[in-house]
Amino acid sequence: MHPTNRLETAPPARPLRADAARNREALLAAASAEFAAHGADASVADIARRAGIGKGTVFRHFPTKEHLLGAIVLDRLVTISELGEDLLGAGDAGRALLEFLTAACERVQQLDLSFLLAASPAVLAEPAVSAAQERMFGVVGALVARAQEQGAVRADVTGPDVILLMCAPSHAASPLQDSDPGLWRRYLGVLFDGLRPEGAHPLPHPPPAAPVP
Amino acid sequence: MHPTNRLETAPPARPLRADAARNREALLAAASAEFAAHGADASVADIARRAGIGKGTVFRHFPTKEHLLGAIVLDRLVTISELGEDLLGAGDAGRALLEFLTAACERVQQLDLSFLLAASPAVLAEPAVSAAQERMFGVVGALVARAQEQGAVRADVTGPDVILLMCAPSHAASPLQDSDPGLWRRYLGVLFDGLRPEGAHPLPHPPPAAPVP
DNA sequence: AGCTAACCGGACCCGGCGGTCAACTTATTC
DNA sequence: GAATAAGTTGACCGCCGGGTCCGGTTAGCT
Questions:
Q1: How many CA atoms lie within 13 A of A13 on its CB side?
Q2: How far apart are alpha carbons A75 and A133 in whole angstroms?
Q3: Whether residues A85 and A34 fall in one domain
Q4: Partner-chain residue, chosen from B114, B203, B208, that has the shortest CB–CB distance to A189
Q5: Do residues B52 and B90 both lie within one domain?
């Protein structure tokens, strides 16, 4: 086991050396960009090259490529959760939910959120990641519940529904990602209209118990 | 170049030998199942094993794994297009569109339709595939137009919108594919409510010119 | 039955991947 | 300015997947 396979959280026993900290930051930035561009299949060699470091250095900071992915995913989850918690205090809960979904799609950009849910077991096994996932689930559930209390969202959808649906707009728009980067906003609009109570028709299938198996 | 790298269409100059035809059918069935289970990354070796044939035989029928994928995609596109053309004569155009989308999601199941759009260049380069794609685009456009004329679908969405959105339900439900295989119906319901005119809010982004770059 | 061309199959090649390691470099400390 | 622990590196390994090939097999015709 490597000495520095921690995952962002918890201050290290001894602080990193200056150059190591720099490299780690560059590595995370490069990994984020490369995963965004090529999905979870981005190669470690490419990430290292983009970061301007050697391949070996990558594995010094993260024992496995999946752990590196886990760090990125964790960052996204925490960012989104914090944003959602801020919005929980907003007066207009429907607007807050829409704002939350917009920001979530924006942060995640083309890095498909779907692997936040169906991520490989190795990533989800990391306690920090699954904890952050639970946190986000809770936040979304609360936002949805408040929006429903105010009549801004139809009563027959659930938190897990919204979690599963929230990555749909950016995914639907992904074929035109390059030529029309803002298209996901349009499809988030369509989705949100589908979540509204006005003109809602009964849904032909019960909601899932949880967004993960 | 292989002698039999055709792609379903056009009767061969000379008919295939009996065993070759059998193997080809088994190969297509196995490839369909394997692609459905593991996405486009399914390995040729696995496909051959499932079909009960040797790996070399796969490449005798299709010069490349991508051509094999192309054949599957082509089949899906043609099936869906035919179904859509049948439904063009239906009286209730809104119901027809919903039925079409339901059938499309059903046929495609977990085999994500997204690579019908963002498919690798090699697959789309095949004239038969791009022709079938154009055909499906036309059918969807016509179904949407008729539904709009009857006031069953909001006026500010377009054919390309629906094409991009039609794979969203099955994709959103995919994390729970195994535990709840019919969940996509629920999300198709949400999407379709979002496409209805009642309660529609203005969309924050213009529609794309075409669903492919 | 016998002939032939089409067909089959799995051993093989090659490139790219994640991951390892021992030699080298450098930040830090006294 | 040593001394040393921490950090870096890129050559290297094993593995896996797509694609090739040739010796053996078999369907179809006469």
A1: 4
A2: 11
A3: no
A4: B203
A5: no
Residues B86 and B127 in one domain: yes
Is the model more confident about A212 or about A83? A83
What pLDDT, on the 0 to 100 scale, is given for residue B14? 73
Cα A134 to Cα A7, A128, A163, B156: the distances in Å are 17, 10, 11, 37
Tell me if B94 is assigned to some domain.
yes
pLDDT, one tens digit per residue, over B169-209 is 998 998 898 899 999 999 999 999 999 999 899 999 999 99
| pLDDT band (50, 70, 90) for residue A66 | very high
How many independent structural domains does chain B possess? 2
In this complex, is the C-beta atom of A196 within 8 Å of any C-beta atom belonging to chain B? Answer: yes
Question: What DSSP designation does B3 have?
Answer: T
Same-domain check for residues A134 and A43: no
Instruction: Find and give the residue nearest to C12, measured CA to C1'.
Output: B56
The answer on B142 and B183 residing in a single domain is yes
B179 & B112 share domain? yes
Tokens of A106: 């924006």
Q: Are residues B107 and B186 in the same domain?
A: yes
Can you state the angle between helices B65-87 and B18-38, rounded to 10 degrees? 80
A35 assigned to some structural domain: yes
Rg (CA), chain A: 19
Predicted pLDDT of residue A101: 97
A49 touches strand C (CB under 7 A): no
Is B196 in Cβ contact with A205 (below 8 Å)? no
pLDDT value at residue B135: 95
Whether residues A49 and A83 share a domain: the answer is no
Q: Is residue A112 part of a domain?
A: yes
**Which of the residues in chain B have pLDDT under 70?**
1-13, 109-122
Distance between the alpha carbon (CA) of A45 and the C1' atom of C22, Å: 20
User: pLDDT, tens digit, for every residue of A125-175?
Assistant: 778 888 999 999 999 999 999 999 999 999 999 999 999 999 999 989 988
- CB of B18 within 8 Å of any CB in chain A? no
Cβ-based burial of B118 (10 A; exposed 0-12, middle 13-18, buried ≥19): middle
pLDDT for the residue A39? 86
Domain that holds residue B85: 72-195
Judge whether B124 is closer than 8 Å to chain A, CB to CB: no
**The pair of three-digit structure tokens given for residue A142, joined into one six-digit string:** 């609360």
List the single protein residue with the shortest CA to C1' distance from C21: A56
- The C1' atom of D24 and the CA atom of B43 lie apart, in whole Å, by 26
